[in-house]
Amino acid sequence: MLRTGKEHLESLRDGRVVYIGGERVDDVTRHPAFREAAKTVAAIYDMKADPAHRDAMTYEEDGGRHSFYFLRPKTREDLQKRSDGHRRIADFTYGMFGRSPDHVASFVTGMAMKPDALPKPHAFADNVLKYHRHIRDNDTYVVYAVVSPQAARNPEFYQKKAIPVPSLRVVREDDDGVVISGMKMLATGALYANEIWIGNVIPLAPDQKKEAITCAIPCNAAGLSLWSRKPAAVGLTSEFDSPLAWRYDESDSMLMCDSVKVPWEKVFVHDDALLSRDIYIKTASHCFGNHQSNVRYWSKMRLLLGLCSRIANATGADQVPAVREKLGEMAAIEATIGGLVNGQINAFESWPEGYVCFNRRFMYAGLEWCTQNYSRFIDELRTLCGGSVIQMPADISVLDDPELAKQFDTFWQTPQADSLTRMKLFKLAWDMTGSEFAGRHLQYEKFYAGASFIIRNHSYRETDWSEFNGLVERLMAGYDVPEKSKRAAAE
């Protein structure tokens, strides 16, 4: 089935436990800190369900019509369909929603393409296949929490204090499932989702068996609470003054579990530390989820490039040759991620058997490129803005007073734009470069896929070093030591 936006909003009124500091939020669809972002997610569902987007954003399988991101591709055209669908969602949110409904669904879909990578007795491949069908058939929005809290990676500290290690773990096994307790990060988007995939994308030590649980739980599971960071919408006065934070804050939450029961059919890996991470990289899972992130990042780069251009135009700086050169450089940087995204499709891999996958090396190259270049792009935009972003009145209420409005219109206009257009543009630029919302995105893009060494290790793993070494060996085999040198060496 294809869920509508109204149906999705109704599904969020399920009794989930959410905290903003000490405040408990009973309904994220109505709370002022979350309601506009919830509407954005609902609008994504409406876009997918719109008959005008039927062919581009859905596909048919098993007698039903489903969202494109559940498609297990068998051809290059299928990969193109998936990528184009990601692009539509990313463009709709201007790349601001990293954990949109197509993100974790892609992880699960990639895993469902290679069930033999989940061997018994510690993995349950049938459960993954059933779960893929379940979220496909119900158009379920799934997010994930797949990293242990930082301090929990030093268990000796907690042992000395005789207190529990906070990292989420299995505390009991019953005939009908397992019981989990502890904390997991970072459940981005969980406030607007239906279920949370719990797992481990960072390798665990072999003795961390009880932390090696991969499972799925509903967002309103008994004993589960979501502790939100400070929402970007807190204290905002209007969409005009905070156009991005107003509706595109996808939220981030720490996931807290207090004896949450997980039925066996929702358990995918248990008691195998290495396997709990390998299921992502030995299937198409990690590649599919991160292709989506590359596409989403590209949409954000397009917005940033447009902002760079419009800001330069609004200040008249676009007439300066050095600024035009800088804009050309930024355009080349934006085009690079576009090339990397398309390269992942055109150089696709026939893997696993019967299916196809985006090119993994190109995907990791894109991931590395993204984490290294976002700060640079923001800095260039900030340079182009100069002091203009802090020359604007505090907010749009300046227009409520006729005399102030007249003065504003008279003195803030320029040959390039009227005062209101300039204010609108620079408020947008500030929300991209200087606001709390902007700071969150700067941190998010830098560490989205983990520290740089993690991404580069992925790249190292996926590189066929024998091929590159062979180039050197073949070249050296084409010439020999000169006879004179051979004789000298022999003497």
Spell out the blueprint of helices and strands.
Layout: H1 5-11, E1 18-20, E2 23-25, H2 35-49, H3 54-57, E3 58-61, E4 64-67, H4 76-92, H5 102-112, H6 125-138, E5 142-145, H7 155-161, E6 169-174, E7 177-184, E8 195-198, E9 214-218, E10 224-228, E11 253-263, E12 267-269, H8 273-281, H9 285-315, H10 321-346, H11 360-385, H12 402-411, H13 419-433, H14 436-447, H15 452-462, H16 465-477, H17 483-490
Parallel strand pairs: 1-10, 5-8
Antiparallel strand pairs: 1-2, 3-4, 6-7, 7-11, 8-9, 9-12, 10-11
Helix pairs in contact: 1-2, 4-9, 5-6, 5-9, 9-10, 9-11, 9-13, 10-11, 11-13, 11-14, 11-15, 13-14
Based on the coordinates given, report the CATH architecture of the largest domain.
Beta Barrel
Number of strands: 12
Helix proportion: 40-55%
> What is the CATH C level class of the largest domain, in words?
Mainly Beta
Q: How far apart are the first and last residues' alpha carbons, in Å?
A: 83 Å
The CATH superfamily of the largest domain is identified as Butyryl-CoA Dehydrogenase, subunit A, domain 2
Number of domain modules: 2
The overall pLDDT, averaged over residues, is 94
Name the beta content range. 5-15%
Q: What spatial form do the alpha-carbon principal axes imply?
A: globular
Strand order of the largest sheet: 2-1-10-11-7-6
CATH topology of the largest domain: Butyryl-CoA Dehydrogenase, subunit A, domain 2
Rg calculated over all Cα atoms = 25 Å
Number of helices: 17
Largest sheet: 6 strands, mixed
